[in-house]
User: Fold this.
Amino acid sequence: MKGDWVEIVVDVGGSATRTYEVAATRAGRRVEIGNRRGVVEVSEVTRTGTAIRTARFMSNRVLALVEHPVADEKGERSGDGRGNGRGDGRGNGRGEAGG
Assistant:
C-alpha cells in the first residue's frame, strides 16, 4: 500500500552501519520481504506482482529490518483483516456490526 516502507540497517564493517529504505511510492504498490539462500531481498512490487525496485543484502550483515505500515486517519493500520475493510466503523451495509 502506498506509504508502506521498510528500513534496513546493515553492518558495513568496523563499527559503522548504513541505513537503507525501500518504500511503496505509488498507489497499489506494496513492499515485500524475502529471505532466500543467505540473501535478504526487499522489493517494491505492483498489484500484479512485478518488481519495480529491489534491494538485496547478505543476511549475515543485516542488523535490523523494520517494517513501517501506513496508518489511516484513526491511527490503525489499514487492511489488517478486521472489520469491513473500509476503516470507517460503519459495518458492512447489511445492518451487521462487522465483516
User: Anything to note?
Assistant: The first strand starts at residue 5 and ends at 13. Residues 5-68 form one domain. The CA atoms of residues 65 and 76 lie 21 Å apart. Residues 80-92 have pLDDT under 50 and may be disordered.
